[in-house]
Amino acid sequence: MRLLVVEDDKDINRQVVAALEEAGYVADKAYDGEEGGYLGESEPYDAIILDMGLPKADGVSVLQKWRRAGVKTPVIILTARDRWSDKVDGFDAGADDYVTKPFHMEELMARVRALLRRAAGHASSQISCGPVTLDTRSGKVFVDGNQVKLTSHEYRLLSYLMHHTGRVVSRAELTEHLYDQDFDRDSNTIEVFVGRLRKKLAVDLIQTVRGLGYLVDPNQPAARV
């Protein structure tokens, strides 16, 4: 999962990005509304954390512009403003959730997990498909109840596919959502990680749909190709 943090306080920005990366996400960052607005409109993020009090363009204006442009990315407003009217402005502009500063990082991470689950249609912190269970809270993966050790890249790939079960995900989409904007993207890398995942999971979970991408389908047995 790839997220964007738009926050002008560099210490807070750094701390949030570090917490996201520690939780297994990829995070890009911006420090003003102009840069953040451009990235949010041009890059395919899974969620955005957006401060309201930004230089160059305030968060509400940025969010309104995204929604007018058809950007449907889930957004968590992050701000020091705690008046109810400010919250209403944020939600009316198109925000999906709201966190007031100062905040506990654990709460923000829990809200991020919940937002990503809701966006993908999952209600629980545990996403299961056949014998495989991915625990988004702990960042652990289990097969038949036994934990499987994955690298951060392998976990990100499996997490994205399991968040989008029942839908074919292209290699290009995986590349866009698993790596930050500065990563040297090579679609062949995806094939390598899929191969490693299949060996480690030792179950037929990830299907290859020729010419289209990969599919994790909970409604039918998967066959390797």
From TrEMBL:
Response regulatory domain sequence ranges: 2-116
Naturally occurring in which organism (per UniProt): Methylobacterium symbioticum
CDD domains: REC_OmpR_EcPhoP-like, trans_reg_C
PTM annotation (4-aspartylphosphate): residues: D51
A Pfam family that the UniProt record links to this protein: Response_reg
Keywords assigned by UniProt, alphabetized: DNA-binding, Phosphoprotein, Transcription, Transcription regulation, Two-component regulatory system
GO-annotated cellular components: cytosol; protein-DNA complex
Entry-linked InterPro entries: CheY-like_superfamily, OmpR/PhoB-type_DNA-bd, Sig_transdc_resp-reg_C-effctor, Sig_transdc_resp-reg_receiver, WalR-like, WH-like_DNA-bd_sf
Name recorded for this polypeptide: Transcriptional regulatory protein PhoP
GO terms classed as biological process: regulation of DNA-templated transcription
GO molecular function annotation: phosphorelay response regulator activity; transcription cis-regulatory region binding
